[in-house]
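Data's thin. Show one?
=====
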Amino acid sequence: METIFDKFRMDGQAAIVTGGAGLLGKEFSKTLAQAGAGVIVADLNGAAAEIVASELRDEGYTAFGVRVDVTDDKSVHQMVLAAIREFGRLDVLVCSAAMDPKFDPQNAGKHGNSFEEYPVEAFRQALDVNLTGLFLCAQAAVIPMLKQDHGSIINICSTYGLVGPDQRIYIKPGQPQQFKPVFYSVTKAGVLGLTRYLATYYAGRNIRANALTPGGVYNNHDETFVQNYSSRTVLGRMARKDEMSGALLFLASDASSYMTGSNIVVDGGWTAW
């Protein structure tokens, strides 16, 4: 008799994770592999993608690294063909690749542009990656999904796609003001629109599209930022990098077979206030 735990298994299925070498992308790739899926770890940094895939193979899982530029339709189609070549199918697409202006130590002081002076070129580039990239990936992935009559698309959103950024958390005494840039909120809000479009467009075709909205994930941030961010959450802390994986697997697997066009928010209560 099938149990609820069986519904989370993904044996015999194949998945692509874009941004697979990123902080969350690595966790998503590992989660899907642990559930039994073959995984294409796709990233603009092809060498980093292969390192992640190699580490998974060393643990006994099935994974391959692929370089992909999500803004290039030919590159995206090659990524999907890699999944078909290796696994003969494609069941899950996780769109995690995005320009994400982070405030960890490696990116300190890089976000000083106010809205009034934000470069239009940077705004257009972000639209190309964060929205056009999702469009191209979904467009390519649904082709084998339609042939199989089965597929799950998971687009990674952000709390800042639901609410405006609280720019106060980026203030540090004695330092110039930093800002979460305008493009991030705009593109992440667009992610939800695209997700709902895909869900309704493929009504009756057994292709589901949902969004996963993470809150802030700790990545060696300085103490001031951690305190500022944590004070805005109900749970009083930032997320660990593995705390999105349960929701991701739920959306990817048959455990969520009656869900499409939805958005799961995992933000420690940030948007509940």
Residues 47 and 67 are 8 Å apart (CA to CA). The longest strand covers residues 207-214. The chain is about 40% helix and 15% strand. The chain has a mean pLDDT of 95.
